[in-house]
Specification:
With 33 residues, the chain is an all-alpha fold. Helix content is 94%, strand content 0%.
Length: 33
């Protein structure tokens, strides 16, 4: 099913986004200290 492929892709993209977001927040926190 196409819907299943889209859901899988969305999950992958969300994981990448969250990972990038965490790294960005970590960098900001390190700069603040």
């Amino acid at each position: 099913m196409l819907i299943e492929q889209v859901e899988h892709w969305v999950k992958q993209e969300a994981m990448k986004y969250m990972d990038t977001l965490r790294r960005g927040i970590s960098r900001l926190l390190i700069k603040q200290i």
